């Protein structure tokens, strides 16, 4: 479970996130929707205890990011957009194993997890190759596996399909469904309305750091009288700037 409670984040005189609240239930795939620069990544960095809220608090599985950051870190897996941060001289397996070892996984369990994730993400053909020559999509698969290797209860995915082709994106969506079947709580950040529509039933919509909506997609469509999520998003943006 994730509960965001009236969270704000300021950097000097700049307010990146202001008074945002929403709740993700255990076992739910929840969408965090907004354009680039809306405050999605800042919000997720606060969830991951990388940034500290200026005001408010966030609870992950009942633990406060402000008061119990170590407990929060033990329970989450996080994938941020942008540079995947892999070690080019190591193989995909070695990259994943390195991060798994940081979480204290014993060797046998670690290799079982790597083999399982390799199969799930269809990485077997390159799992033992050095990542330096990988395509962006191949690196993204390794980064996703690294995020999941310690089998976290709560998974934070910031623009996870960046660099993935259509086939790989479909593999990713099947993986999300499998993780949900296992009872994982997943927060999925994107500005791709099609992905949100396929993966999520409930969302939080952020624009310029402010929460515009939190709830079910059906409720969102009813509120605006529009079926298409792209059109709804543009209505929200234009309405907030009117």
What does this structure look like?
This protein is of the alpha/beta class and 242 residues long. It has a single domain, classed as Rossmann fold (3-Layer(aba) Sandwich), CATH 3.40.50.300. It contains 9 helices and 10 strands. It has helices at residues 40-47, 69-75, 92-102, 107-120, 136-148, 166-181, 193-199, 217-224, 229-241; strands at 2-11, 14-24, 29-33, 55-60, 63-64, 76-79, 154-158, 185-190, 202-207, 210-216. The strands form 2 sheets. A 6-stranded mixed β-sheet has the order 6-7-8-3-9-10, sandwiched between helices. Strand 1 (2-11) and strand 2 (14-24) form a beta hairpin. Helix 3 packs across helix 4 and helix 3 (92-102) packs parallel to helix 5 (136-148). The longest helix is centred in the last third of the chain and has 16 residues, at 166-181. The two termini are 35 Å apart. The mean pLDDT is 91.
């Amino acid at each position: 479970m994730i509960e965001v409670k009236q969270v704000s984040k300021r950097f000097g005189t700049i307010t990146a996130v202001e008074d945002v609240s929403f709740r993700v239930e255990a076992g739910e795939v929840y969408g965090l929707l907004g354009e680039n620069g809306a405050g999605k990544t800042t919000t997720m960095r606060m969830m991951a205890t990388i940034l500290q809220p200026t005001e408010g608090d966030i609870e992950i599985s009942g633990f406060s990011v402000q008061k119990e950051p170590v407990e929060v870190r033990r329970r989450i897996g996080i994938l941020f957009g942008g540079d995947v941060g892999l070690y080019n001289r190591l193989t995909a397996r070695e990259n994943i194993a390195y991060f798994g070892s940081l979480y204290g996984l014993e060797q046998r369990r670690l290799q079982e997890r790597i083999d399982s994730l390799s199969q799930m993400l269809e990485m077997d053909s390159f799992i033992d190759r050095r990542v330096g020559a990988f395509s962006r999509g191949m690196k993204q698969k390794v980064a996703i596996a690294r995020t999941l290797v310690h089998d976290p209860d709560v998974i934070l995915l910031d623009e996870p399909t960046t660099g993935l082709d259509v086939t790989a994106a479909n593999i990713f969506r099947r993986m999300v469904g499998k993780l949900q079947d296992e009872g994982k709580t997943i927060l999925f950040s994107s500005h791709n309305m099609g992905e949100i529509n396929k993966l999520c039933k409930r969302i939080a919509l952020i624009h310029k750091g402010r929460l515009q909506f939190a709830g079910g997609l059906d409720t969102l469509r009813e509120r605006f009288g529009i079926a298409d999520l792209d059109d709804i998003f543009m209505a929200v943006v234009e309405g907030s700037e009117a």
